[in-house]
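Posting this for the archive.
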Amino acid sequence: MDSLFKSFENTTVLVVGDVMVDCYLNGKVNRISPEAPVPIMNVQNREYRLGGAANVALNLKSLGAKPVLCSVIGKDNKGTIFYNLLQKNDLDSLGIIHSTDRKTTIKYRVVGNKTQMLRIDDEDDSYLNEKESSQFLTTLTQIIDNQKIDVIVFVDYDKGLFSGNIIHQIVGLSKKLNIITTVDPKKRNFWNYEGVTMFKPNFQELCDGLRIENNNFSLEEIHQVIKDFSIKQNIDYVMTTLSEKGIAIYDRKKDLFFSQPAFLRNISDVSGAGDTVMSISSLCLAANLSAKQTAQLANLGGGIVCEYSGVVPITHEMLRAEMMKQDDFNNN
């Protein structure tokens, strides 16, 4: 176990993807509006956190790794908030490009009486223009040229950073340099990640991407679905999270399938669980763990973060403590 966390500390991860600010408006609700049948919330505090790809970077840092974040944000007041959050969390802003042609994505979560009542997304999900794309790829290439990158993590929230052309260029570069690539996809670019090392949608995203109905699939059916996709897309590992049913992974090179139920938890909020799973699994692959070990550890970490309200990273101390309680890890 000590050697695993030591390997995390020696791993540099280039996180490329859609970044955002998560804003929590917390307050109390005591009455209904006379204007419409909706509650009136009196805001007591406003909290900003890093979201999207930036939360993946924060998770990686909390686990002991060295994240390098690369993305495009707006040159606006929300962009200033984002930049200040990077500084507050001791994350490098070297790979962050500011554009006057975009707005910085912000998600407002309205939480009244400790219950989320509403989410408001203020964003621009159009693709990068030619100038922004050029700046983005130039910055990313310079980072790879100047640092030893062990893993490239694609965090795709369908906010416009990735096009098929940009994805193919990054994957092509990673293959030349033998860099592991992992992907947290969304629908728009679902089929553009051919040849990456690991592809990790949740099961609803997998069904949306494959245009199949999300029925009550058996594990055997899930096995066949992700195996077929893995072979068709030339992807080494396809891992999918199954909500309360846990996690499943297919290893194409060994033709092995593994699944594990979710660990029993007191679920508070599932926000950010996918980011945690992505961070842990990427580090596990860099540490040469097997598909089974990778899925087990990612499943454990994803469950831990669900016990906390809002989008929060887990630390390597938290993960280590939970691993000590589980026979699966003590016996490995």
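The two ends are 9 Å apart (CA to CA). The chain has one domain: 2-20+52-104+125-330.
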